[in-house]
Amino acid sequence: MKVEQIVEATLFASQTPLTADEVARADENLDAERVVEAIRTLRDAYEESERAFQIYQLGDGYQILTRPEYAPYLERFDSVPRAPHLSPAALETLAIIAYRNPIGRIEIEEVRGVSASSVLRTLLDWELVEVVGRGEGLGRPLLYGVTRMFLEHFGLKDLSDLPAPDELPVVLGELQQAMEAELESAEGLELESSDGPDPESSEDPETPAAQEEAEEEAT
Fold first, then answer.
1. Which CATH class is domain 88-218?
2. What is the domain partition of the chain in residue ranges?
3. Which of 41, 83, 92, 149 is spaced 20 to 30 Å from 195 by Cα?
4. Given 3-state DSSP classes, what are the helix, strand and coil percentages for the chain, each rounded to the nearest 5?
5. Pairwise CA distance, residues 183 & 196, whole Å
6. Which CATH class is domain 3-66?
7. Is 120 helix (H, G, I), strand (E, B) or coil?
């Protein structure tokens, strides 16, 4: 059996990105170098045959995903998993955290000019951000950073793939326009995913993120 077939079968069956070393575990004759070479060959083959999917590098792993341009067609089916629809507030907060990682809630609010408690809880629940430590200031506030899930959601290899800071307003505007167009094309689709809380209205004090915030306020 060809190396490309083994690698393709492994990536196709996985629901999460796999590193080259993890894929190599599929066969004793494989190693990370051969896996990476097979991925390059498969990518070229998919491009040449104009397939509706491609192998994307997400963080330090690889995953077979449908090309973004086919998303509007897939959203017509309830059986196809949907990524959370992020509000402008969520996008802004994610951008701030990504560029200033790690950063505390107070600093985020200073940049945005509004409270960030609610949207932070949502981003924590969606595992797009995580608590990465505590600051050295008064009360040792919680510090937030983006997660591997963030990289996967936006199709980034690492944070170096982010646009330059001066391009951020343009990029956010394009993301927002794409989100609005996507929502208009999907009849009956709500602004927020039914599986996730509303980043501007969720105020459940019993969530783990809310408990962490309460602990931060108490300290």
1. mainly alpha
2. 3-66, 88-218
3. 92
4. 50, 10, 35
5. 16
6. mainly alpha
7. helix
